[in-house]
Design a protein that fits this description.
The chain is an all-alpha fold. It contains 11 helices and 2 strands, in the order H-H-E-E-H-H-H-H-H-H-H-H-H. A two-stranded antiparallel sheet has the order 1-2. Strand 1 and strand 2 (74-76) form a beta hairpin.
């Protein structure tokens, strides 16, 4: 659903650019809380979650290269807003998808540069807000168990994709550059993206379920799902001991040491590299939902050339490499690496600022006490 340059006019593109910039700024502040991991029961901390947020961005980039067929001559791909929000939190999720869209536009000429605000607003903000809001609503009414997280992930991801299609239709109604009846755009966009949403839901539920199975502590949406372990008093205590201390509090269980995330992160990175480097070769070559609708309805008649069309990685191919499989695979690997570096860098900045502010607050409190 990457909107190219020329689909939306300049005023609406500028307006969505402002919305996207504001959303990223708010997300940077909100991500400080999500990446801080202050809850003892969760056992999470910024040192562990910041690299994982970069990994989520890289994984979404890789999976977006795997277009899957949804109808005759049409394909779809993961948007990723629901997956990112559930794994690392809604604010951090917006940052992850924004990084993915930035890398795609700048390095691979996928999604227009003047339309970057449109794409971030639609694919990062709308999908994340809709998906995570519905996810939390479903968890509030479903039984408190892991299977409920997977079920809620499926439904939230399914709904988020047609929601993004509706958002695009509204933006096109405000600033579309071609004279196409909005009713036809709405019907075509929502129809095909409901089908794409099914694929999004399957990918999201499988990924969330897999992480829950091995490291449930790393799923932001599952925080607080399991009550912390408590040590009960032994029924074998002697009657004398019981009488001597009838109200004695039970001895607290020792804190469970934090588990290393290195193996998990390495496995995730290798998976992303394999999907982008090898799996992408077998992706559907059919146009995605927006491309198909744009071609059928004439929306693409005023498409402009991408400013990065001469990039050595344009169209997910490495220039000067004639073998399509090697060229596409290498481009995917480079994209995963670049997205991982930028995504991790952004989240590390967020964590460092949180640390600096906490240290400054502690120092101020100490000086006032003295």
């Amino acid at each position: 659903m990457h909107v190219p340059d020329g689909f939306i006019d300049a005023p609406v593109s500028l307006a969505t650019g402002a919305v996207a910039a504001a959303a990223v700024a708010v997300s940077l502040r909100g991500a400080r809380r999500e990446l801080g991991g202050t809850a003892p029961a969760d056992g999470l901390g910024g040192e562990r979650t910041a690299p994982l947020a970069g990994l989520v961005a890289a994984f979404v980039f890789a999976v977006q290269m795997l277009n899957f067929p949804v109808a005759a001559g049409t394909s779809g791909h993961l948007l990723g807003g629901a997956l990112a929000a559930i794994l690392v939190g809604p604010f951090t999720g917006v940052l992850c998808i924004s990084v993915v869209l930035l890398m795609q536009a700048v390095l691979f000429a996928d999604g227009g540069l003047t339309a970057l605000g449109v794409n971030i607003t639609d694919m990062a903000v709308v999908t994340t807000l809709v998906a995570y809001g519905l996810f939390r609503l479903l968890l509030a009414v479903l039984p408190r168990r892991r299977s409920s997280v997977t079920t809620a992930s499926f439904v939230a991801a399914l709904v988020s994709v047609p929601a993004a299609a509706v958002a695009f239709t509204l933006l096109y109604a405000l600033g579309g550059t071609t004279d196409v009846p909005i009713g036809k755009v709405f019907t075509a966009m929502t129809g095909v993206h409901v089908l794409i949403g099914i694929g999004e839901a399957v990918i999201t539920a499988l990924t969330v379920g897999a992480v829950l199975a091995v490291r449930p502590d790393l799923v932001y949406g599952a925080r607080g799902l399991t009550a912390p372990l408590q040590l009960r008093t032994s029924p074998l205590r002697s009657g004398t001991d019981a009488a001597a201390a009838p109200d004695a509090a039970p001895v607290p269980a020792p804190a469970k040491p934090a588990r290393s995330t290195r193996r998990f992160a390495l496995a995730g990175l290798l998976t992303a590299l394999a999907l982008a480097g090898v799996g992408s070769y077998y992706a559907s070559a059919s146009p995605d939902g927006l491309e198909k609708v744009a071609h059928d309805k004439g929306i693409d008649s005023k498409t402009e050339e991408h400013a990065a069309k001469d990039s050595p990685l344009a169209d997910y191919q490495v220039s000067d490499i004639t073998d399509g499989r090697i060229s596409g695979g290498l481009a995917g690997v480079i994209g995963v690496g670049a997205t991982l570096l930028v995504g991790t860098g952004v989240t590390w900045v967020v964590v460092r600022r949180r640390r600096d502010r906490a240290a400054a607050a502690t120092g101020t409190a100490a000086s006032e006490t003295v």
